[in-house]
């Protein structure tokens, strides 16, 4: 009997999604997560409060969640904010881009969903009768040791409680600081943007009208992303709450973080040119430093990296999770297809993993460098120079007038 067990380290959205897809295909999976198991009460507390963080799910990610039987639960929760327009503009010049129904073939461009809402839907789906017999959940367990036994056997994983698990295929889905990547000896290329992103939730004077907005400022990007209405007061006055991701030089971000919430709100409103009027309320203020990173290789014998363990990009286009979900799709398709072609004898072959890497690493590299170039173009050291300003002004103006190009950009953003 062949060993076709898969071990996934990292129980976040990307890792849990891969576990669910493999379980749907009746593949044995163990999902290992260092975070403790959440009770129903824990989930309720997490869902009762508004999270300033939000994922801008592309149509490709939404379609994958539908296939997994997860999107139905997210929709039923009414904790998603669909957007049908995307408005991008620059403060120091002419030209703006507006993606909307008459540009994109789909009336829906994407949906903003809070992390806990997606994680809860995945957790619920993993308990369903058709998949639960194929998934072993190991929560609250840190991995103490990884050992590559052989190409035939795969990896032996030792948990903090002494439990040992052997799997033919080991998947690292354990985030930017991936222990799996480090233990496998895979190097990391990094780029420090010397920027900090301020995140918060704001209530604006004017409604967002299902539009995701992004102002390209000389100091960095400022994104205003629709949030779901969760309270009775929200629903009585809908579409006024939004998630903010404001990219700034580190020193400027720290100055603003030292201000009062009211002062920060006023600075935010001014920075986006009062696009939606004054900011009436602000909450859940947080920050994180920005960098881009990419593993020099996504795979080794019996091992693959997905999501943030493999790559991390600038948040200016909100594509981080979407790239991870495309990893999940590509890897699961490659594994299942090659397993079938082998007569159901060979699981997780190195040739399958290399094919996955060839599908995903070039695309992720292109996206990472594109976002870095855009960040440099608008907020880099030469961004204020006259030639670069002129390049931005002419570029945005001309692109906005070319409808086929706008459709192409909308399709790329959808991930389809």
Automatic annotation (TrEMBL):
Pathway: Cofactor biosynthesis; ubiquinone biosynthesis. SUPFAM superfamilies: FAD/NAD(P)-binding domain (SSF51905). Residues 6-367 form the FAD-binding domain. The chain crosses the membrane at residues 6-23. PROSITE patterns: UBIH. The keyword Transmembrane helix applies. Its cofactor is FAD. GO terms for molecular function: monooxygenase activity. Keywords: FAD, Flavoprotein, Membrane, Monooxygenase, Oxidoreductase, Transmembrane, Transmembrane helix. It holds the Pfam family FAD_binding_3. PANTHER family: UBIQUINONE BIOSYNTHESIS MONOOXYGENASE COQ6, MITOCHONDRIAL. Belongs to the UbiH/COQ6 family. This is FAD-dependent monooxygenase. The lineage of its organism: Bacteria, Pseudomonadati, Pseudomonadota, Gammaproteobacteria, Moraxellales.
């Amino acid at each position: 009997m062949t060993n076709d067990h898969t071990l996934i380290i990292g129980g976040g959205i990307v890792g849990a999604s891969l576990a669910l897809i493999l379980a749907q295909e009746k593949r044995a999976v163990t999902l290992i997560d260092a975070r403790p198991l959440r009770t129903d009460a824990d989930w309720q507390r997490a869902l009762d409060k508004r999270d300033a963080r939000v994922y801008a799910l592309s149509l490709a990610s939404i379609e994958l969640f539908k296939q997994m039987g997860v999107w139905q639960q997210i929709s039923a929760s009414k904790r998603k904010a669909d957007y049908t327009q995307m408005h991008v503009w620059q403060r120091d010049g002419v030209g703006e881009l507006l993606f909307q129904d008459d540009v994109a073939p789909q009336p829906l461009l994407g949906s903003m969903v809070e992390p806990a809402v997606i994680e809860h839907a995945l957790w619920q789906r993993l308990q369903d009768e058709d998949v639960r017999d194929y998934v072993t959940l190991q929560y609250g367990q840190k991995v103490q040791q990884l050992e590559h036994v052989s190409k035939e056997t795969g990896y032996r994983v030792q948990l903090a409680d002494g439990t040992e698990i052997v799997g033919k295929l080991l998947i690292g889905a354990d985030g930017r600081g991936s222990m799996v990547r480090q233990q496998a000896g895979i190097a990391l290329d990094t780029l420090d943007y010397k920027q900090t992103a301020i995140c918060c939730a704001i209530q604006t004077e004017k409604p967002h009208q299902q539009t995701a907005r992004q102002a390209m400022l000389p100091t960095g990007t400022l994104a205003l992303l629709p949030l779901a209405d969760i309270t009775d007061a929200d629903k009585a006055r809908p579409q006024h709450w939004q998630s903010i991701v404001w990219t700034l030089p580190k020193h400027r971000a720290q100055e603003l973080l030292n201000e009062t919430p009211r002062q920060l709100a006023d600075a935010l409103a001014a920075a986006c040119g009062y696009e939606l009027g004054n900011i009436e309320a602000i909450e859940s203020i947080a920050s994180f430093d920005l960098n881009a990173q990419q593993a020099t290789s996504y795979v080794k014998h019996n091992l693959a990296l997905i999501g943030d363990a493999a790559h991390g990009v600038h948040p200016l286009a909100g594509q981080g999770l979407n790239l991870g979900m495309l990893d999940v799709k590509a890897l699961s398709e490659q594994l299942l297809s090659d397993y079938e072609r082998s007569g159901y004898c060979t699981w997780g072959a190195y040739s399958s993993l290399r094919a996955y890497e060839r599908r995903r690493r070039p695309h992720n590299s292109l996206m990472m460098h594109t976002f870095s170039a855009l960040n440099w173009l608008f907020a880099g050291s030469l961004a204020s120079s006259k030639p670069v300003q002129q390049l931005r002004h002419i570029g945005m103006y001309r692109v906005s007038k070319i409808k086929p190009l706008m459709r192409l950009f909308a399709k790329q953003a959808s991930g389809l």
